[in-house]
């Protein structure tokens, strides 16, 4: 190993507070252990990440800049830093990965300053790419890779999903040596020191609005309950962690794995949370539901999406989810004292503005029904932002509307596309400003009328006040310009936005 082939693993800033264990670069570090020397640079934990990057690059020891990319905030560092590295350190190879780079690879590679995109899991592809580059070998046979050759974009085959239990141990100690773990184990609704853990890859479904689908094509593989528990126990024993957020796209796919994990963690008195599908979990046995609650699972995030069965079909939600089931399941979870966190995707395309609006009003009333059935249900609202799920009915409607993605990588960091990424105001052709205002107005009024239980900062008095002030708007659907509520929310009743700030 020469001393000038070291690797920077960079996690661009992804949150303004509530930093979480950066599982992406942690897992990439595991893949390099014993093969390449590497450093972690976490934009969340650096006052000036560029200075840190520059310090490393100036040493002349680093040949590879590996950067993960999620849309929105991460791009604000990923794009300018990678470009600057190309200008100032042209010998450095720039490698990107993550959901943004994979789904938007044409614009990424056409920028001229990203050399390779690792598409999907990097556990094998990343060290294999470094080996090939170190030995001047061709990269064409390395799976999960996208790059440019003779000005054409080349995509190699997708790798079969690995047995997740064969992955190397996560280098928690090395991360802790650079960024002390206390800074990652934040206080949340679940506990004082919350772990972020990722226990599976992919998802078995093919919802046509979802960025996971083009990468994993309905494939899912999870670590065993024992492997998960080993890491959790380490973080508990060594760093005093007392709660867990599972960051998997779909943690609860296997009832057997979930209950096996619940049995293992039951006596540790930790609270935990994860993401699931309503139709999958509605099939769980009552004993399993009772066990996971007893084992500390307090709240679960579900993609409810819409109460309209025709739109569920257009979204290719797959499985057996229906509007009736969404309501029945909210009621069922109340019995087990598990809080359902339901996310809805509003503002999907339709042929006319009237149809878009009618669909929106249908969902507003549906959400109110769910709240009436189980008031503890937390509602998260996304405005539909297209992802390139080629061949789906939904994406066909999107293309028909004339929507296109940006042609220049830098465009992704202008405010128009940032809003698109944050799924708040995507400015898609079928959404008039009035419709977007109605969606955002409903979100404000709903969050005011039902302040979320997981906002640990709200006092009882604050909850009551904002609820009283929003009651008439909520009941009558007066959703226009709820400035008084927004003012309160921004001052002393800021409501929680897990999708933007952290879960
Ligand atoms: C944690 C997380 C966050 C956290 C960040 C934590 C924090 N507080 O710092 C928070 C909550 C802030 C967040 C926010 C957002 N997120 Co986010 N987030 C995730 C989540 C749940 C986990 C990421 C993770 O750690 N994965 C674990 C690692 C091990 O997996 P991985 O990242 O896929 O990495 C592997 C490979 O992809 C590859 N790889 C990845 N990067 C790289 C880089 C290189 C160089 C190489 C070689 C390989 C490689 O190798 C790795 C190992 O195999 C993912 C979903 C998921 N399950 O991954 C969504 C996800 C990435 N987020 C997503 C989105 C859209 C957002 C938002 C932009 C919008 C929103 N409203 O949700 C916001 C941004 C807000 C903002 N501030 O700008 C989407 C991206 C979809 C897309 N269109 O591309 C995802 C996929 C969720 C989803 N299903 O929709 N997020
Ligand atoms: S179930 Fe969730 S993660 Fe899976 S494809 Fe659908 S939206 Fe994506």
Specify the helix fraction band.
40-55%
Please identify the top-level CATH class of the largest domain: Alpha Beta
Total number of helices: 21
- Strand pairing plus helix content: what structural class? alpha/beta
The counted number of beta strands is: 15
Strand order of the largest sheet: 2-1-3-4-5-6-7
CATH architecture of the largest domain: Alpha-Beta Horseshoe
Task: Give the N-terminus to C-terminus distance in angstroms.
Answer: 41 Å
Oligomer kind: single chain
The CATH homologous superfamily of the largest domain: tm_1862 like domain
Tell the overall outline.
globular
- Which radius of gyration do the C-alpha atoms yield? 23 Å
Bound molecules: cobalamin, iron/sulfur cluster
Low-confidence stretches: none
Mean pLDDT: 92
Number of domain modules: 2
Q: What's the main sheet like?
A: 7 strands, mixed
Write structural notes for this entry:
The structure is a single chain. With 503 residues, the chain is α/β, with parallel strands linked by helices. The protein has two domains: 6-155, 3-Layer(aba) Sandwich (Rossmann fold), CATH 3.40.50; 185-431, Alpha-Beta Horseshoe (pyruvate-formate lyase- activating enzyme). The chain contains 21 helices and 15 strands. It has a seven-stranded mixed beta sheet, with helices on both faces. A six-stranded parallel beta sheet has the order 8-11-12-13-14-15. The radius of gyration is 23 Å and the shape is globular. The model has no long low-confidence stretch (mean pLDDT 92). It binds cobalamin and iron/sulfur cluster (SF4). The site of cobalamin (B12) has 45 residues, from α1, β3, β4, α4 and α21.
């Amino acid at each position: 190993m020469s001393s000038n082939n070291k690797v920077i693993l960079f996690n661009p800033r992804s949150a303004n507070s509530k930093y979480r264990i950066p599982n992406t670069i942690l897992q990439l570090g595991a893949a390099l252990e014993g093969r390449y020397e590497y450093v972690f640079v976490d934009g969340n934990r650096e006052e000036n990440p560029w200075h840190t990057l520059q310090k490393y690059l100036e040493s002349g020891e680093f040949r590879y800049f590996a950067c993960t990319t999620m849309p929105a905030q991460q791009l604000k560092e990923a794009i300018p830093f990678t470009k600057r590295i190309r200008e100032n350190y042209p010998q450095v190879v720039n490698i990107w990965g993550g959901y943004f780079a994979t789904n938007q690879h044409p614009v990424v590679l056409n920028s001229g300053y990203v050399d390779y995109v690792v598409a999907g899991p990097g556990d094998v592809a990343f060290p294999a790419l470094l080996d090939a580059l170190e030995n001047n070998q061709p990269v064409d046979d390395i799976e999960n890779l996208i790059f440019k050759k003779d000005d054409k974009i080349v995509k190699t085959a997708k790798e079969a999903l690995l047995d997740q239990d064969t992955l190397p141990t996560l280098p928690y100690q090395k991360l802790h040596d650079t960024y002390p773990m206390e800074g990652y184990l934040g206080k949340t609704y679940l506990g004082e020191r919350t772990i972020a853990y990722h226990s599976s890859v992919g998802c078995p479904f093919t919802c046509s609005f979802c960025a996971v689908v083009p990468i994993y094509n309905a494939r899912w593989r999870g670590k065993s309950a024992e492997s998960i528990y080993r890491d959790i126990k380490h973080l508990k024993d060594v760093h005093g962690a007392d709660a867990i957020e599972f960051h998997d796209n779909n943690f609860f796919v296997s009832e057997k794995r979930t209950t096996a994990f619940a049995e293992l963690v039951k006596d540790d008195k930790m609270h935990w949370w994860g993401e699931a599908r309503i139709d999958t979990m509605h099939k769980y046995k009552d004993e399993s539901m009772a066990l996971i609650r007893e084992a500390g699972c307090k709240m679960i995030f579900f993609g409810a999406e819409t109460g309209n069965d025709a739109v569920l079909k257009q979204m290719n939600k797959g499985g057996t989810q229906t509007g009736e089931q969404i309501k029945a399941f909210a009621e069922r979870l109340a019995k087990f004292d598990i809080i359902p966190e339901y996310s809805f995707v509003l503002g999907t395309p339709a042929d006319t503005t009237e149809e878009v609006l009618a669909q929106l009003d249908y969902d507003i009333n549906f959400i109110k029904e769910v709240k009436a059935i189980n008031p503890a249900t937390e509602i998260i609202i996304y405005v539909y932002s297209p992802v390139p799920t080629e061949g789906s009915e939904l994406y066909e409607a999107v293309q028909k509307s004339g929507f296109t993605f940006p042609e220049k990588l830098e465009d992704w960091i202008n405010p128009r596309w940032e809003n698109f990424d944050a799924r708040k105001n995507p400015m898609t052709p079928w959404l008039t400003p009035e419709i977007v205002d109605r969606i955002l107005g409903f979100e404000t009024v709903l969050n005011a009328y039902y302040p979320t239980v997981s906002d640990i900062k709200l006092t009882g008095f604050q909850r009551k006040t904002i609820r009283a002030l929003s009651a008439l708007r909520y009941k009558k659907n007066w959703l226009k310009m709820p400035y008084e509520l927004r003012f309160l929310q921004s001052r002393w009743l800021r409501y929680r936005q897990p999708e933007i700030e952290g879960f």
